Amino acid sequence: MVKSKEWNWSVVTDSSWNEPSGDVYYYVNRWKKKNLNSFLDLGCGLGRHSILFAENGFDTYSIDLSQYGIEVLDNKASELGLDIKTTVGDIHNLPFDANMFDCLLAYHTISHTDTRGIKIIISEINRVLKTNGEFFATLCSKHGSAFTNKPYPRIDENTILRTEEPELNVPHFYTDLDGVRNLFKDFELIKIRHIEDIFNDTSSWHYFIHGIKRE
After folding, report:
1. Is the pTM of this model over 0.85?
2. Distance between CA atoms of 60 and 5, rounded to whole angstroms?
3. Residue 11 lies in a domain
4. Helix segments in 60-171, DSSP class H
């Protein structure tokens, strides 16, 4: 398995990384209505979604490999008077008890591994979610030009290494629809979306996956 590598958040200047994604507001509302309270932000980055969930009353836990990102989140939480329990750690080996969380977000994070690593990460998601707990996760799609057209170094048939900051040497795992269904075969999948985002004429495709852990 390829070694985990964190984002270099210290060089990120795009303010969008401080704003929650529009998709995530739906899950804040859905999970509040379902009384799913214990929440894990898996690969929280600078904490944009952790802040959102904590402000909405969730018992919020956050983990990221980046010490810098966690320090930024800790400072934000302190300024806002929010209780967010943060951890610097690797999402391949979560330091949490089994069946601990009602809901889990993994937004543009679990793709940062290789073919072997993604299976480990998803097994960890399964382990820490309670029965009937829900997750919302994204995965990189092989439809994207970064996988199909750009000469990035290959780790395996599904994985490239990025060669620019802030993702220098960060692995990216890519999949197709059958791969998504196979990886999450132990969950009930509620919805899978395949979406193209375009930023400054650059196309990026991802799968957006909503599932539930069942018995």
Report:
1. yes
2. 24
3. no
4. 67-80, 115-128, 145-148
The per-residue pLDDT of the chain, averaged, comes to: 96
Residue pLDDT, tens place only, 160-196: 999 999 999 999 999 999 999 999 999 999 999 999 9
Count of residues for the chain?
215
Q: How many domains does the chain have?
A: 1
81 contacts 144 by C-beta, under 8 angstroms: no
Q: What is the pLDDT of residue 202?
A: 76
- The answer to whether position 21 is within a domain reads no
Residue type present at position 70: I
Specify whether the CB–CB gap between 110 and 80 falls below 8 A: no
Check if the beta carbon of residue 111 is closer than 8 Å to that of residue 173.
Answer: yes
Single-letter amino acid, residue 191: K
* CB 86 within 8 Å of CB 96: no
Q: Does the CA dihedral 182-186-189-194 come out positive or negative?
A: negative
What domain range includes position 110? 26-213
Dump pLDDT digits (tens) for 23-64. 999 999 999 999 999 999 999 999 999 999 999 999 999 999
Q: Which residue has the tokens 């979604």?
A: 49
Whether 91 maps to a domain, the answer reads: yes
Core vs surface per residue 148-167: b (16+ CB within 10 A) or e: eeeeeeebeebbbbbeeebb
